[in-house]
């Protein structure tokens, strides 16, 4: 019983942190919905998920939201004339509960994340973020069907997917370049000043590693002109390309 009470308190705190701390940290808030270069980003409470149509009756999700009922995702699928059975792929930027809650609603989907994230995704580990210290790991019924690795590339419908390991927020955090979008999960955020920000220490396993991963990602994507938007888990998408990452990397070099 005490575990349930502590869990409820921690979940409430996390929601409050998402609502209160986000603005305090200077993040640009998530819009209810944003259409960006073939991806439809939808707000699900404190977090976003994205629906990427791949063809008739075929779509991919990037993350699966905070709502175990998946209502916002299902509504967006319906808006696009799609059904839950049309979701063939789910790419998880990482395994925190607020990004995987509705995976179980799409049993026909191939579920992918970095191999280094398996224990977090499948609920055997929380990673080591300070905010999660009183929150025991809890399986959410997610089982990975495909393990990804840094540097993987593959096609999903008309889109080329490029996989980048960006450890720090969690051990197996990933960024996915899909078409013209770079999905960054919780590894970065959109500041109200229009700049990219690293993830706050209280949510991270390792904040120094998070910053280093963003600097490395900026180097790896240097001169990439295909990316037109950066998409984050808890703040508004940023309609800038890789130069926003390069700008972040320059501020780190000065530190
Ligand atoms: Zn997270």
How many strands, which pairing sense, and closed or not: the largest β-sheet?
7 strands, mixed
Q: Give the radius of gyration.
A: 17 Å
Low-confidence stretches are none
Q: What is the CATH topology assignment?
A: Metallo-beta-lactamase, Chain A
CATH class: Alpha Beta
Assembly state (oligomeric) = single chain
Number of strands: 14
User: Could you give the distance between the termini?
Assistant: 47 Å
Shape: globular
Strand arrangement across the biggest beta sheet: 1-2-3-4-5-6-7
Give the helix tally: 6
Considering DSSP H and I runs of 4 or more, what fraction of the residues is helical?
A: 25-40%
CATH architecture: 4-Layer Sandwich
Associated small molecules: zinc ion
Number of domains: 1
Strand percent estimate: 25-35%
Write out the CATH superfamily name.
Ribonuclease Z/Hydroxyacylglutathione hydrolase-like
Tell me what you see in this structure.
The strands form 3 sheets. The protein has a 7-stranded mixed β-sheet, with helices on one face. A 5-stranded mixed β-sheet has the order 8-9-10-11-14, with no helix packed on it. It has 6 helices and 14 strands. The mean pLDDT is 91. The longest helix has 23 residues. With 255 residues, it is of the alpha/beta class. The protein has one domain: 4-Layer Sandwich (Metallo-beta-lactamase, Chain A). Bound molecules: zinc ion. The site of zinc ion has 5 residues, from loops.
List descriptors:
single chain; 255 residues; alpha/beta; Metallo-beta-lactamase, Chain A; seven-stranded mixed sheet; five-stranded mixed sheet; 6 helices; binds zinc ion
């Amino acid at each position: 019983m005490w575990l349930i009470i502590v869990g409820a308190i921690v979940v409430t705190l996390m929601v409050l942190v998402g609502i209160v701390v986000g603005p305090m940290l200077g993040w640009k808030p998530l819009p209810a919905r944003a259409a960006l270069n073939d991806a439809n980003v939808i707000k699900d409470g404190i977090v976003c998920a994205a629906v990427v149509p791949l063809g008739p009756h075929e779509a991919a999700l990037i993350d699966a939201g905070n709502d175990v009922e998946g209502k916002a995702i299902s509504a967006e699928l319906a808006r696009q004339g799609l059904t839950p059975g049309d979701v063939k792929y789910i790419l998880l930027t990482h395994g925190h509960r607020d990004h995987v809650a509705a995976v179980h609603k799409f049993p026909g989907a191939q579920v992918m994340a970095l191999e280094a994230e398996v224990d977090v995704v499948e609920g055997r580990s929380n990673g080591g973020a300070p905010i999660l210290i009183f929150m025991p790991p809890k399986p959410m019924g997610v089982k990975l069907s495909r393990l990804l690795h840094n540097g993987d590339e593959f096609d999903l419908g008309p889109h080329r997917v490029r996989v980048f390991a960006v450890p720090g927020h969690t051990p197996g955090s990933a960024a996915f370049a899909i078409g013209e979008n770079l999905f960054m999960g919780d590894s970065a955020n959109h500041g109200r000043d229009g700049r990219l920000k690293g993830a706050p220490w209280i949510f991270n396993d390792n904040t120094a590693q998070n910053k280093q991963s963003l600097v490395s990602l900026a180097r790896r994507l240097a001169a990439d002109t295909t990316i037109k938007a950066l998409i984050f888990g808890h703040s508004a998408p940023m309609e800038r390309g890789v130069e926003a990452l390069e700008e972040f990397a320059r501020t780190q070099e000065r530190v």
